[in-house]
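Anyone up for a design puzzle?
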């Protein structure tokens, strides 16, 4: 039985983040295909952390900048190591390479962090889009060091090939995954237009694009909607809502902060429209994927909708201009006919864009094609490039980590 080790930036929280939900989907694919799956992380678990051992995955707490991880790898000897985001690869890949020389290295980017950062700079500092930023230097280096990288968005899949010349053979497109069998187990009520009311926003409040969207809605868009629909409310849900979120609560204006939604599907099914006025970000949006499951139409900006509807029309509308966005929200909210037309296409969109079986097969096939070459089998340029990437990784992360480990041992 092949062994997969996943090194998590955090312990998966499928009810609070799209990243946690996606990670659980990936783990299930490997479990279903007879892998022995191990998951480790140096972070502390939260009350939202999923119990991986309940689905047969072995958990291990590890320590950052600690030589005990070397012993863990030596004993485990995984066939595949999957890094949860590029910063995890930076911290651990050199240790894996030194202690398990023949394993396959896979990076799950989640989304391209450098793209999200570049868009944030455009919005907040009014500077031109610069993809070639410092985060890109680190993230592209991590992608280049790994044998394969999972990319969640077709936009990002194409960008890596065109702008950074990453070979297609080193990338695999894996979006969120949908299956009829999984959906049949859901227990929420599929409410009709008449039984739904109000608008909803949902998302982890620690995620900066989500926080910005809430402020944007509060200050700019919601007053326009409320002017036409004075009795309608918007309810804001999300894990980790801090004081800067809760202080936005205003009953008089119909802007209500609701806290954590323990069941996103059950919550969304009570509302007529999901608001997703995201102004920067990357990857795919878990909130829209959840809305599709509950037949809840979405009011989206182009950033929110990006790469969500590759093989179908959007599930709702896409609009970036503030006044038009508010106008379309009111129209969709009031029109039963228009709402039913959009809502009724949710399963068709899920099946055409997110078919679980097809993407699972593609992932496993791509992994089966990976050929770990020895130094003798590599071309001189391949050998040089890999040594160069590892050299710079070692210079920045390996020796700093060893210094921290030594310092900690001396203080013990």
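Challenge accepted. My sequence:
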């Amino acid at each position: 039985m092949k062994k997969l080790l996943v090194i998590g930036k955090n312990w998966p929280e499928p009810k609070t983040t799209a990243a946690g939900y996606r990670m659980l989907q990936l783990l299930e694919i490997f479990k279903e295909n007879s892998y022995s799956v191990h998951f480790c992380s140096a972070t502390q678990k939260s009350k939202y952390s999923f119990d991986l051992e309940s689905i047969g995955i072995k958990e291990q707490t590890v320590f950052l900048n600690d030589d005990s991880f070397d012993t863990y790898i030596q004993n485990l000897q995984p066939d595949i190591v999957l890094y949860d985001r590029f910063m995890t690869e930076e911290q651990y890949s050199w240790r894996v390479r030194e202690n398990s020389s023949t394993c396959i290295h896979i990076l799950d980017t989640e989304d391209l962090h450098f793209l999200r950062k570049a868009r944030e700079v455009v919005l907040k500092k009014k500077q031109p889009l610069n993809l070639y930023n410092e985060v890109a230097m680190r993230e592209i280096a991590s992608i280049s060091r790994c044998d394969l990288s999972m990319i969640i968005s077709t936009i990002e899949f194409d960008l890596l090939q065109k702008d950074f010349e990453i070979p297609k053979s080193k990338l695999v497109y894996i979006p969120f995954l949908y299956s009829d069998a999984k959906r049949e187990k859901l227990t929420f009520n599929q409410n009709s237009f008449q039984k739904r009311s109000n608008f909803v926003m949902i998302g982890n409040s620690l995620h900066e694009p989500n926080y910005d969207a809430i402020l944007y809605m509060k200050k700019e868009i919601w007053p326009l909607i409320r002017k036409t629909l004075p009795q309608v409310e918007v309810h804001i849900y999300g894990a980790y809502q801090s004081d800067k979120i809760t202080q936005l609560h205003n009953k008089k204006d119909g802007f209500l902060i609701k806290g954590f939604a323990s069941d996103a599907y059950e919550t969304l099914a009570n509302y007529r429209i999901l608001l997703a006025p995201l102004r920067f970000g990357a990857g795919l949006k878990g909130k829209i994927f959840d809305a599709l499951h509950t037949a809840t139409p979405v009011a989206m900006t182009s950033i929110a909708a990006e790469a969500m509807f590759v093989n179908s029309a959007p599930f709702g509308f896409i609009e970036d201009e503030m006044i038009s966005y508010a106008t379309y929200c009111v129209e969709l909210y009031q029109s039963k006919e228009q709402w039913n037309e959009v809502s009724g296409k949710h399963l068709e969109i899920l099946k055409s864009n997110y078919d679980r079986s097809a993407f699972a097969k593609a992932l496993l096939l791509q992994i089966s094609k990976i050929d770990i070459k020895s130094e003798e089998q590599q071309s001189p340029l391949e050998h040089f490039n890999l040594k160069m990437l590892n050299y710079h990784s070692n210079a920045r992360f390996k020796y700093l980590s060893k210094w921290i480990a030594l310092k900690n041992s001396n203080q013990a």
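A detail worth pointing out: DSSP finds 17 helices and 13 strands in the chain.
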